[in-house]
Amino acid sequence: MNERNVINGTLASYLAWAADFVSPIRWFLLAALALVLADLKFGIDAARHRGEVIRKSRAVRRSINKVIDYICWILVATSFGQAFGTPFGIPVLPAIVLLVVYGCEINSCFNNYFEAHGSRLRINIFKWFKSKSDIIVPDEPTGKQGGDEEPPPDTTN
Question: Which residues of 128-138 are buried (b: 16+ CB within 10 A; e: fewer)?
């Protein structure tokens, strides 16, 4: 009986740790599943549009492989967040890593969707993010030399 209590206590502590680890990333897992299902649906539509034979076993195998790949990427991103993001004060590090990974899948979803509807339009969201980089504008030099700054106005009237 005592051995069983030790095993149950150990298992409960490990499961509590795993639940604490998975809790913040549950939305990343849901997003990965949604992206894989969307890519599967749009990929099948695009293959039908091209006149290809749809092999369900291959589609399911590739989708399961993608889900496993995304779980691995989510674990890597979360580990990076714990190892580097938390100590250096970068709480969005896992989101940045996964944005890059999910960006590839989003491109695939868009491109399969447009191909299935007969459009030759190609989408690359990374180019869109690149064009948004101009929101960070460096400070313009004011022409003053270092140390020539005026003191702040006295507001103690």
Answer: eeeeeeeeeee
What ranges in 81-154 are assigned the alpha helix state H? 86-88, 93-116, 125-131
Per-residue pLDDT reduced to its tens digit, 104-150: 899 999 999 999 998 888 888 888 777 766 554 555 655 555 555 56
CB neighbour list of residue 73: distance below 8 Å, 6 or more residues apart: 97, 98, 101
The total of other beta-carbon atoms located within 10 Å of residue 30's CB is: 10
pTM of the predicted model as reported, rounded to 2 decimal places: 0.69
Q: What is the CA radius of gyration of the chain?
A: 25
Which of 33, 40, 35, 38 minimizes the C-alpha distance to 60?
A: 40
Query: Given this model, what pLDDT does residue 156 score?
Result: 65
Which residue is listed with tokens 């990343």? Answer: 28
CA 153/CA 71 separation, integer angstroms: 56
Contacts of residue 48, defined as CB under 8 A and 6 or more positions apart, other chains included, come to 54, 116
**Alpha-carbon span 45 to 97, nearest angstrom:** 29
